[in-house]
Design goal:
The protein is α/β, with parallel strands linked by helices. It folds into 2 domains: 142 residues, 3-Layer(aba) Sandwich (Rossmann fold), CATH 3.40.50; 198 residues, Dehydroquinate synthase-like, alpha domain. The chain is built from 12 helices and 8 strands. It is globular, with a radius of gyration of 20 Å. The mean pLDDT is 94.
Length: 354
């Protein structure tokens, strides 16, 4: 991907209270609609959706893999629109399937947890749930429909994980931008960074209240702001700043942690939360870790490896994690071109010693 290639989001982003009621109108222009979803996701959708839903349903296998996306395309055979109903892995699977079929993609998130419904980014895994690669769909979604009242069905733990994943946008981009020459900070990079800063400030100001609102099922301005920050604004950071605003240290280490099977049951954002601290330790920003500590404590975010179900800290056990995190094609290197596995391991040790 070119550093100056701007891909900010879907063709249409529809957000608000009750907007799913207009779904029949949105789908009326398509002749053959196929739906990709998961068991729980579709149950939640069906319990809320006010109309009949007479479209063929295809279940993904939970892997977000090329293999499953291809199998779904072969099962669908032909469609001019693929509707993804679910979380980030459903959305990413549907991106591959829609592209394979030459169909438009419509994404209906069933929870507030990440920016996958907004961006063309695809986080692809192997069928065994280890990371494969970060890819990009050839075009963004035709439409993303964010019904804020429907999204009050988001499990609180997923919402909190989404907050953590979105918080990383600022810290990952700041670690890159601080080392860039002023002339390299294009107008679009600066816009992406200001978006990341706005997101951080929104999260610090509103996230704790938004969690409380979600816990009692109350649709409030705070919940709506955090919803759009997680799904849309987070996607705009990388959409404008591209390689400087997608990911860096925290997500590179997160992807490496996929080699530890005990972390597979931990939500993506929770792992990223811990990895933000490791990245901050790597850049010697321990004062920032302490600034974040009350926020982490209020949301019960992971601050130690044991919170990710990891009980070993020996260097050999982390070999595959570290090797992956420092790969040239990964993004930790954007912070430090001279990165080594040992430096990352030392940062992990530093966080564990706090």
């Amino acid at each position: 991907m070119l550093a100056n290639e701007v891909r900010p989001g879907p063709n249409r982003y529809i957000t608000g209270d009750g907007v799913l009621a207009d779904l029949p109108e949105y789908l009326s222009e398509f002749q053959e609609v196929a739906v990709i979803t998961g068991e729980q996701s579709f149950d939640v959708f069906s319990n809320y959706y006010p109309h009949s839903f007479d479209y063929p349903i295809y279940r993904y296998d939970g892997s977000s893999s090329y293999e499953n996306a291809q199998a779904l395309a072969e099962a669908i055979q032909q469609a001019d629109a693929v509707v993804a109903i679910g979380g980030g892995k459903v959305a990413d699977t549907a991106k591959i399937t829609a592209q394979t079929l030459g169909a438009e993609l419509i994404v209906i998130p069933t929870l507030v947890s990440n920016c996958a419904p907004f961006t063309p980014v695809i986080v692809a895994y192997y069928p065994n749930h280890t990371i494969c690669k970060i890819d990009y769909a050839k075009k963004g979604a035709y439409m993303t429909i964010v019904d804020t009242r429907f999204l009050l069905a988001t499990p609180v733990d997923y919402f909190i994980a989404g907050i953590a994943d979105t918080l990383a946008k600022y810290y990952e981009m700041e670690a890159i931008v601080r080392n860039m020459a002023e002339d390299d900070k294009t107008a679009l990079v600066r816009l992406g960074f200001q978006s990341a800063l706005l997101i951080k400030n929104l999260l610090i100001a509103d996230a704790i209240q938004a969690v409380k609102d979600l816990e009692v099922g109350q649709l409030t301005p705070a919940f709506a702001r955090i919803t759009d920050a997680i799904i849309a604004l987070a996607g705009e950071v990388g959409g404008f700043a591209v390689e400087f605003g997608r990911t860096s240290g925290a997500h590179a280490l997160h992807d490496g942690l996929s080699y530890l099977s005990e972390t597979h049951s931990v939500l993506h954002g929770n792992k990223v939360a811990y990895c933000i601290w490791v990245q901050l330790a790597y850049t010697n920003d321990f004062d920032v870790i302490e600034e974040l500590r009350p926020f982490y404590e209020a949301l019960h975010l992971p601050m130690k490896l044991k919170d990710l179900h990891v009980t070993r800290l020996d260097r050999d056990y982390f070999a595959s994690v570290l090797t992956y995190a420092v790969k040239e094609e990964e993004t930790f290197i954007l912070i430090d071109p001279a990165i080594t596995p040992e430096k990352v391991y030392q940062a992990i040790e530093a966080v564990e010693a706090l």
